[in-house]
Amino acid sequence: MGDVLVVADDLTGANATAADFSSVGLRAATASAATGAEVVTGMASRFDVLVATTDSRHSPPDEAAARARSVVRAGWPARLVCNRIDTTLRGNVGATTAAVADEVRSLTGARVVVLCAPAHPTAGRHTIGGTQLLDGRRLEETEVARDSRTPMRTSDVLEILRQQTDLTAHLVPMAVVTGPAESLVGDIGAALDGGAEILIADAMTEEHLARIATAAVTASEGRDVVWVTSDPGPSSVAMARALGLGRTSHGFPLLVVSGSATELTRKQLQQLVAERGAVVHRMPSLPGSAVPDVEAATAVLAEALAQAAADDIVVFATVVEDSDVRPMTAEDAARIPRHLATAVRRVVEEHPVEGLFTTGGDVTAAVLAELGSHGLEISGEVVPLAVAGTLVGGPWEGMHITTKGGLVGDVGTTVTCLDHLRQTVELDRRRVASADSRPLHRPPPAPTKERQT
Predict the structure, then answer these.
(1) CA distances to 87, 122, 124, 174, 185 from 204, in Å
(2) Is residue 322 a contact partner of residue 280, using CB atoms and an 8 Å limit?
(3) Domains of the chain by range and CATH?
(4) Angle, alpha carbons 31-37-43 (nearest 5°)
């Protein structure tokens, strides 16, 4: 389950809202829902916050509502669903607000109440007396009144909502917002008891938005209410924090794939265990052979990744101890990387990893081939002859990888490479991503017929 699902009506607003959530430490990504519901479904559980844009600001109301509903269904379940609206209230504000609330109600079977606090204080948008102001002026007195597609004739938030929905509304005025906390809670509680379906709240500062969200959560205790937000972003962030939603989606483990039998590689893996707490799993081999048993290896690695925490390092190696080194034929030497890579590919189809480290040139080539990658986009050299980059092409395009040969570096080189990989992944986790039609690192469903090994 993702923490927050946001339905946005345009990409610019979606990106801004994702940035708002990212600024408070949540992993936030944007995705285009127009390319298909599977995009939203595939990404929703990967991030703390997914902001899906429907590109429906200027669509007919019925179409905008249908797209909003589709996003909620595709991204469900979520702990908080938000309807991201324009800061100047252009577009299908009422239709999408009602659609999101109705869909959440259908999915939860609970009473749904919308908190609409459309202020965006840092952008000069304030709400006073239920009136939306742009840099202190009513909307109809600004250039948005002459918008060629959605001219704003009023700045009355309730009136704008009622153009497309008949939700029962209650205004939380500035005097209540800035008054004693218990009075604010009491006002919201009374509105809930009176059957309010949407609360329109005044706000001029970020503190006001935080007070409103906190009071709303407090007032709803014991009232079986599910909150939905409808705003340009800041109020949704405040509601997420009031609900105690934090950074719970930390990504996936790092996977080390070692097919090198060198003494240096064994010492490097031992150092990785000692310094970074990596968990090493020896690849099962066929009876009397050094060649991996693909079925057994797949089972071992699948269990290891299933049990691994998000920030763990899982090592899968053909050779761990000196006793694992066996004589082999040239044919066996060629089969080992292929079998190892096949097991890796099968497992990561079901158990995603955040980054990949490979050691051994033949193993690296085999793994890239199995993952359908055309090659690597190299970002730099970690140490001489050990490089970092991302996969190019295939279902795992964009996955971070660091790779080196079995005789490269000193005892601490693998630790250095994994530290670099983790740092790169962490930076990527904080990046506000604009997603294409495919979620990074998680491929389409596995084919029904396995590849031949």
Answers:
(1) 13, 9, 9, 9, 19
(2) no
(3) 2-242 (3.40.50.10840), 254-435 (3.40.980.20)
(4) 45
Q: Are 167 and 139 in contact (CB under 8 A)?
A: no
What six digits make up the tokens of 221? 């205790």
Torsion of CA 251, 439, 98, 77, to 10 degrees: -50
Q: Give every strand in the sheet of 137-138, ordered side by side.
A: 125-128, 131-134, 137-138
Which tokens sit at 258?
Answer: 């070692």
10 Å Cβ neighbour count for 374? 11
Residue tagged 């080189």 (tokens): 413
Calpha distance 217→199 (Å, rounded): 13
pLDDT tens column, 24-53? 878 888 988 876 777 788 788 778 899 999
pLDDT, tens digit, 9 for 90 and up, residues 280-298: 998 888 887 778 889 999 9
Instruction: Report d(CA 167, CA 195) in Å as an integer.
Output: 10
Q: Is 308 helix (H, G, I), strand (E, B) or coil?
A: coil
Task: Tell me which residue of 97, 120, 111, 37 sits closest to 71, measured CA to CA.
Answer: 37
The reported pTM is: 0.60
What is the distance of C-alpha 166 from the center of its chain?
33
* String of DSSP letters for 386-411: EEEEEEESSTTTT-EEEEE-TT-S-T
d(CA 347, CA 352): 8
Half-sphere exposure of 335 (CA within 13 A, CB side): 15
The answer to whether 171 and 158 are in contact (CB under 8 A) is yes
Q: Which two tokens stand for residue 26?
A: 């949540």
> Mean of the pLDDT values across residues 252-277?
91
